Amino acid sequence: MTMQLYPGLNLGEAHGPDHAKSETFVFGFWVFLMSDLVLFGMLFGTYVVMRDATAGGPGPKELFDLGSVALQTAALLLSSLTCGMASLALKYDHVSDAPVPPRSLGRWLALTFFFGAVFLALEIRDFVEMFAAGSPPMRSAWMSSFTALVGLHGLHITVGLIWILVLINQIGMQSLRGVIKQRLMVWALYWHFLDIIWIGIFSVVFLGGLL
Amino acid sequence: MEKHSEHAQYVMGFILALLLTAIPFWVVWTEALAGMRAAAVIGVCAFVQVVVHAHFFLHISTSKQKREDLELILFATLIMVILIGGTIWILSNLHHRMH
Predict the structure, then answer these.
(1) CA B81 to chain centre
(2) Which of A26, A46, A130, A199 has the CB geometry, 3.0–4.6 Å to A6, for a possible disulfide?
(3) Are B58 and A30 within 8 A, CB to CB?
(4) Alpha-carbon distance A126 to A63, whole Å?
């Protein structure tokens, strides 16, 4: 086993200079991820403080749909698995700078996009239903903090989905250069990171709220 | 060889994560436990699942890698704990005193 240069799946020495060069690139992305983690942490803290501040309006028990949250969780977890498979396809099927990338990478990316899109569609549907049921974000401090926390995660997922489309487009139009490999690797870190944030959201916000 | 073990890692992480998700959802869905006990199950499962994701999906480990990365992650986690814990502590104390 070669030495791991950074946390995350490493390209490996078979990729030659691309492996060594990705170290600083990925480290920089980890710095971003950790600052993002602090941002989510603040919103988690705010949410817990505001959890009873419903101001007489509807609360978790009236608004949350546990079945939908379970489906979203399953979709996001499946997308994490397919994201891992995409990383493995990159590491083992793209060792050379082949002009036409093998299909497996694109297929796993497309599947990840699909599961991510299922997650986002369900989440947007839930938000629309909550707002329609008389609980827009301005209804109470609790609803504001809920929308900020869950909405920010949804926004991150949206960005991740757009990012997948850009990557699929780039590997289709250009050869799989080192810089594109690096972008694929940091996108995978970003995607797995969002799934970890979701563990916090479904545990603290949804399951905690429905107890 | 390495490919197979790495593939197995993702699948293993997925199965463990699925299990650790199913338990708390089942507890809340069936109302098998209530109050602090249910909260404890949810909390423990969430913590273990975060560790599972970090290990199997993000490949964060304490060995065979540059220390700066690990220090960065641990420091950010420390900041998180202080921020969240401190916020909840101070504000719930204030809330308590105002009643």
Answers:
(1) 12
(2) A26
(3) no
(4) 9
Question: Which two tokens mark B48?
Answer: 């273990």
Chain B CB contacts of A10 below 8 Å: 59
Distance CA A126, CA A120 (A): 10
pLDDT per residue over A113-133, tens digit each? 999 999 999 999 999 999 999
Q: What is the ipTM of this complex?
A: 0.93
Q: Tokens for A92?
A: 């083992």
Domain membership of residue B98 as a residue range: 65-99
| Confidence bin at A191 (pLDDT 50/70/90) | very high
Q: Give the gap in angstroms from C-alpha B43 to the nearest C-alpha of chain A.
A: 7
* Whether A81 and B14 lie within 8 Å, measured CB to CB: yes
Report the pLDDT value the prediction gives residue A30, as an integer from 0 to 100. 95
What would the pLDDT profile of A131-156 be if each residue is shown by its tens digit? 999 999 999 999 999 999 999 999 99
Contact with chain B for residue A169, Cβ under 8 A: no
Q: Are residues B18 and B52 in the same domain?
A: yes
DSSP-derived secondary structure letter, A55? T
Structure tokens at A2: 């070669």
Best to test chain B binding among A2, A4, A10, A32 (most B CBs inside 10 Å): A4
Q: Say yes or no: B82 and B43 in one domain.
A: no
Which residue ranges make up each domain of chain A?
66-210
Interface membership of A120 toward B (CB under 8 Å): no
Task: Give the CA-trace dihedral at A38, A43, A49, A54, to 10 degrees.
Answer: 180
Span A11-39, pLDDT tens digits: 888 888 888 888 899 999 999 999 999 99
Domain count, chain B: 2
B3 and chain A: CB distance < 8 Å anywhere?
yes
Q: Do A195 and B57 touch (CB under 8 A)?
A: yes
